[in-house]
Amino acid sequence: MVVQVVFVHGIRTSASMWRAQLAHLDERGIGAHAVDLPGHGTRRGEVFALDEAFATIDRAVRDAATRGPVLLAGHSMGGLLCIEYAGQADPPPVAGFIAASCTAIPRGLGLTTYRVLAGGFNRLPQRGQSITDLVLDRTLPAETRADFGAGGYAYDAQDMALRSLSVLDLLASLTRIRVPLWFINGQWDQLRINERLFTRVAPDAELIVVPRTTHLVTAMRPRVFNALLDVAISTLHQT
């Protein structure tokens, strides 16, 4: 059976951030689906809740599993949620897992600082969108620039989502993941802070650091990320 891929986006963005990956897999004839988490993308206006976030991932995974082995791929917040999801005591039907830009424990000073900065941006005119656009214009290639924010930005869900992440027990979840696991980080990603800890807890995981790349590794170097997707898919086909 052909591998099926389920994508889970990061905070504030939406399923649209995966368009380059979806197009790449479509060309290869591989089934893929990108979800919108509660409060994000097509679900803006909903309140973000962990239970529904996990339920959203689970529905997509179990639907995909009816067609073939599932490769789960999550970026940033989506990656953190997927670590917790894939590491359940009763494992879901996931055959492999890519955790991108999420090797950080979302607690303590780091999380507080992020929330303060995000709150400050939200108080700026248009919630600081002009600054966001300037940064993205200068860092993302033309092939993904429009896609990254095409689903809109989930400003209203951001703080609730950040606060919710603090309850995740990521290290315990990592110890229970028994499927092929890849950590993919950008060289200049701020969420590499606990990278060594994560790889120590999950010693069989592959760590791939993409040079000259920020936190937005999927959008900044889409062809590199797509090549890594191909490696993961080929690995699952061989197992």
What descriptors fit this protein?
globular, about 240 residues, alpha/beta, 11 helices, Rossmann fold
Brief write-up:
It contains eleven helices and six strands. By secondary structure, the chain is α/β, with parallel strands linked by helices.
Structural overview:
By secondary structure, the protein is of the alpha/beta class. It has a single domain (4-238), classed as 3-Layer(aba) Sandwich (Rossmann fold). Helices cover 48% and strands 13% of the residues. It has eleven helices and six strands. The chain has helices spanning 19-28, 50-65, 77-86, 108-122, 129-139, 142-148, 155-165, 170-176, 195-201, 217-220, 222-238; strands spanning 4-8, 32-35, 70-75, 96-100, 181-186, 206-210. A six-stranded parallel sheet has the order 2-1-3-4-5-6, with helices on both faces. α9 links the parallel β5 and β6. α1 packs across α11 (222-238). The protein is globular and about 50 Å long. 44% of the residues are buried. The model has no long low-confidence stretch (mean pLDDT 93).
Straight-line distance between termini:
12 Å
**Helical segment tally?**
11
Overall pLDDT confidence: 93
Beta-strand residue fraction: 5-15%
Would you identify the CATH architecture? 3-Layer(aba) Sandwich
* Rg computed from alpha carbons, rounded to a whole number of angstroms: 17 Å
Number of domains: 1
Strand order of the largest sheet: 2-1-3-4-5-6
Order of helices and strands: EHEHEHEHHHHHEHEHH
